Amino acid sequence: MEALDTLLLSRIQFGTNIAFHILFPTINIALCWFLVYFRLRHDAARGTPAARAWEEAYYLWTKVFALSFALGVVSGITMSFQFGTNWPGYMERVGNIAGPLLGYEVLTAFFLEATFLGIMLFGRGRVSDRVHLVATLMVAAGTTLSAFWILSLNSWMQTPAGFTVIDGRYHAQDWFAIVFNPSFPYRLAHKLLASTLTAAFLVAGLSAYQLLRGTGNAGTGLALRTGVIAAAIAAPLQIFAGDLHGLNTLQHQPAKIAAIEGIWHTERGAALTLFGIPNERERRTDYAVQLPRMASLVLAHDLDAELQGLDAFPGAHPPVAPVFWGFRVMVGMGVLMLALSWALAWRLWRRRARPAAEGPPFTRLQLRLLAAMTFSGWIATLAGWIVTEVGRQPFMIYGQLRTADLVAQHAPGTVLATLLVYLAVYAFLLVSYVLVLMYMARHPAMPTPEAPQGATAATPIGGPGWTGKEA
Amino acid sequence: MDWPTLLPLVFMAVMGLALLAYVVLDGYDLGVGVLLPFATESEKDLMVASIGPFWDANETWLVLGVGVLLVAFPLAHGVVLSALYLPVAVMLVGLILRGVSFDFRVKARAARKGMWNAFFAAGSFMAAAAQGWMLGRYLTAFVHGTWTDLFALGIAITLPTAYAMLGAGWLIMKTDGSLQEKAVRWARTLLWPMGAALVAISLATPLVSPTVFAKWFAMPQFLGLLPIPVACIAAWLAAFHVTRRPKVVQAGYGWVVFGSTVLVFVLAFLGLAYSIYPYIVIDKLTVWQAASAHESLVVIFAGVAVTLPAIVAYTVFMYRVFWGKASPLSYTAPAGPLTEES
Ligand code: HDD
Ligand code: HEM
Ligand code: HEM
Question: Highest taxon of the source (chain A) (predicted)?
Fold first, then answer.
């Protein structure tokens, strides 16, 4: 049991909890804006058959949203206790700074979304359409605001600024500098885009699954198209934002970049490692596939620039393998997302003028690819967080406080017991969630329109010919 | 009193009020969960529908409560939550199971509904009992011993009972017909254990805690505090009266059951607040010793002063939207063809 000490177990437990939590906010932050969009399209189409189709899309995705939101809320409540139960040293040392940021999140974001959620989900018919739309906007604004505050805190932990230390406790000196700390704008942009991509692929992927199974309705095609187009717009932006984020990290956390790139020794004209197996003991990358001098070019825009290697940070650099691999998984997903969304968007563009009667715009193979990518956003997001969070080790507050100094001294058995319970509950819920999502996709529950079939032919993406039944 | 001395007290009050709001609000929906196994299948749907729009916002008060503990009293935050490590975990697992069951029970395939209903009830009970246990541990300053543990166990049994009473009161207000009659019966039964437990706890608290004893049983204070137990007894009698008379419920006074239970909670809260002041960890840390730096308290105070009234305002608005008897919930307008969801 020596290896599984309290520190390690507490880290695994925190990592598991936040990783489970983040799966759902990642979906919800953007999905709520998708719902706003469906609503607005529905209102704009009022009186035409397309209204019905947008309503069907709205209806199914509201169900998904409600379920994901419930999971996000309960796992978030768990998060808010984790600091005190497992990292009491954290609040004792930086409570003056972390406290107000978390407090503002609760006050400005959580109450907003939680309260208006009831009206958004169940209020139609009880309030006017306009009030209902406002409630939906409040929920969307609330989820985005909560991302703002929590990421501000998370970024401050990565690139602390605006504080002074008095007797070991951190005091705020400049709140503006704290909230808008150096890495925050990049992290916020990157995370909001990650959320957009995650939701877009979820919407498109699940819709593709519906078409493959022949259980779509008129809303399915609209949702699919919306997801593909949103992904096609967000994917290149995300790669751009990620590149800027990396340059920012190089400036503030060079040890993390050295781990990402697998640069063991400080050198001029460093090679870019595409793949390889980091070997921490020998301090080298085995089987490396490298492009000579490219790392210097990519990171410093100069073929001969000197890059600091891991040897420049003795005892203060992260474990290399998770950071190295996490980064490649994330970037790999980003490239796949770009390729698929552009290919499909191109097809939609070419066929934009053709009548729906000519059949669905995507082949079965393309639908299968989309369905396979349904949860790709989750994978990229988790990989990205591992890069960020593991890359910050051994510090909790980068360069300031070490994780090991802030942990609660519980008996390892106690932490292990709760960890196992959380793992069991989360695994069960994750499986249930995915199964229920697929079940809902197979039973979208909107009855087929009473109007004659021809009446929906004018829907933007193809009406009845495109419910997937013939595909 | 100057500003730096006053602010920690203000935050103690905000935290107390957030926790009181939590206990009353999530109390009724956890209570409905505890009562779930005693209802028929169709009643279960209506019971869950009666709390569906509210539970998420209700739970947010808990987040605010620990939030203020963390924001304003970071030193106490670590002490309290590490001492309560296991019951917190039990509560969280309970809240997780309960919270997700709201959606899973109607979205998963029908054959699984029974399982999610069971999780709903079990989760509600786990959360309520764990909260009771935590309150007991907190009042006895986290000292382990036969008597203190028994005391905590007593509260761990009492709180679910009291929540169930709140839940029954809620159902009396939000339903009619046979479910309402059933809720009245539940309330009538629950009054006895709840009353007995409250008396026992009130007597036991000063016995297990010398600090509390000293504060209550000194002469002028004792008389000043007398209204608290007296009002408690009056509230209990009011609920007793109403639950015995179906006619009174029919005449529209069913809310008295809920109202008087809330009153009992408020009074118990005032009594506890008096017992604990000025400590935040009894006998160990006072409010001032545990407080954050003054400049951080000012920043968050500004936020509380601006947002709390807004939160209260839109919470009231939300309750008005769903005012009146509960009906099956739906994601679409009731006129629409789709009304099978909750
Ligand atoms: C507000 C702060 C905060 C936020 C928003 C996040 N984290 Fe974090 N994370 C921490 C604060 C933190 C921490 C408290 O600082 C931890 C706990 C122990 C540690 O080493 O850092 C940590 C550790 C930690 C670890 C373990 C790393 C290790 O110990 O080697 C993982 C895998 C994650 N986090 C993953 C995530 C994910 C997937 C997040 C997405 C939401 C996330 N973190 C957001
Ligand atoms: C340590 C970190 C975190 C803590 C303590 C935390 C805490 C919480 C809590 C308590 C809730 C429930 C609020 C309610 O009752 O409605 C919640 C929900 C939420 N959190 Fe977190 N959270 C963390 C990380 C994150 C991150 C990194 C993000 C986004 C980037 C995020 C975004 C959200 C959102 C959008 C919700 C709303 C519920 C949902 O959409 O599923 N959280 N969080
Ligand atoms: C393909 C190009 C991409 C690049 C170059 C890139 C770059 C980066 C970098 C350098 C980091 C680490 C930030 C740090 O130093 O802490 C990061 C983090 C992250 N990435 Fe990416 N990324 C890309 C694609 C994606 C995609 C497609 C997603 C998800 C859909 C994603 C989600 C995340 C998340 C959630 C984080 C952690 C949060 C943060 O620190 O912002 N990334 N990314």
Answer: Bacteria
